TrEMBL record:
<dbReference type="InterPro" id="IPR051611">
    <property type="entry name" value="ECF_transporter_component"/>
</dbReference>
<keyword id="KW-1003">Cell membrane</keyword>
<dbReference type="GO" id="GO:0005886">
    <property type="term" value="C:plasma membrane"/>
</dbReference>
<comment type="similarity">
    <text>Belongs to the CbiQ family.</text>
</comment>
<feature type="transmembrane region" description="Helical">
    <location>
        <begin position="12"/>
        <end position="45"/>
    </location>
</feature>
<feature type="transmembrane region" description="Helical">
    <location>
        <begin position="60"/>
        <end position="78"/>
    </location>
</feature>
<dbReference type="Pfam" id="PF02361">
    <property type="entry name" value="CbiQ"/>
</dbReference>
<keyword id="KW-0812">Transmembrane</keyword>
<feature type="transmembrane region" description="Helical">
    <location>
        <begin position="90"/>
        <end position="112"/>
    </location>
</feature>
<protein>
    <submittedName>
        <fullName>Cobalt transport protein</fullName>
    </submittedName>
</protein>
<keyword id="KW-0472">Membrane</keyword>
<dbReference type="InterPro" id="IPR003339">
    <property type="entry name" value="ABC/ECF_trnsptr_transmembrane"/>
</dbReference>
<keyword id="KW-1133">Transmembrane helix</keyword>
<feature type="transmembrane region" description="Helical">
    <location>
        <begin position="132"/>
        <end position="149"/>
    </location>
</feature>
Length: 186
């Protein structure tokens, strides 16, 4: 089921307004409740539609890694006594974490079935300057181009039996066709 009653440019406006509202929230309990509601709504919607969950799990995992790095940097402070926990930093890290998680859930809920082409068309319906719309179109186009190039390079690397983590190994084949691994000396 698509949200056909809610056109894409209105979804973008709703997402922008929701982002502004979320940025003003400072109560942890309200952000926690909104996160729980949006997260459960997203997973229920995905389950109801029968969509694959793996792409969403990967995106949330990436967000959680970034959130962990934020917690590592903001929760400590250096004082004359050494490293200590920073209560203000922990509070700020918690607020940032909850807001980012809520925004990602809302982005997935509101822009779930919108392709790049529809997104560009929706942005062109908004009352924005022409240069900003052109910049958005170029950004979407080049992100798609970089994604496609990355995918093709990954396929080519797998076809050549190489992986990005094995820089010290060189794979070659002998005349019988069996792969031979030569260990390079650094």
């Amino acid at each position: 089921m698509k949200l056909s009653f809610f056109p894409p440019h209105f979804r973008l406006i709703a997402l922008f307004v929701a982002g502004l509202i979320i940025s003003t929230l400072a109560q942890i309990w309200s952000l926690s409740w909104l996160n729980a509601i949006c997260f459960l709504a997203l997973w229920a919607w995905l389950y109801w539609r029968g969509d694959a969950l793996l792409p969403y799990v990967k995106r949330f995992f990436t967000l959680y890694v970034f959130i962990a790095l934020i917690w590592l940097t903001l929760s400590w402070k250096l004082s004359p006594q050494g490293w200590q926990l920073n209560p203000q930093g922990i509070h700020i890290a918690l607020l940032i974490s909850l807001k980012m998680h809520l925004l990602l859930c809302l982005i997935h809920l509101l822009l779930m079935d919108i392709s790049d082409t529809i997104l560009v068309q929706a942005v062109s319906h908004l009352p924005l300057p022409k240069k900003l719309i052109s910049l958005f179109v170029l950004t979407v186009r080049y992100i798609a181009l970089l994604s496609e190039t990355r995918r093709k390079m990954s396929i080519a690397m797998r076809a050549r039996l190489s992986s990005p983590l094995s820089s010290s190994r060189v794979l070659c084949s002998n005349p019988t066709g069996y792969p031979v691994i030569n260990q390079s000396v650094n």
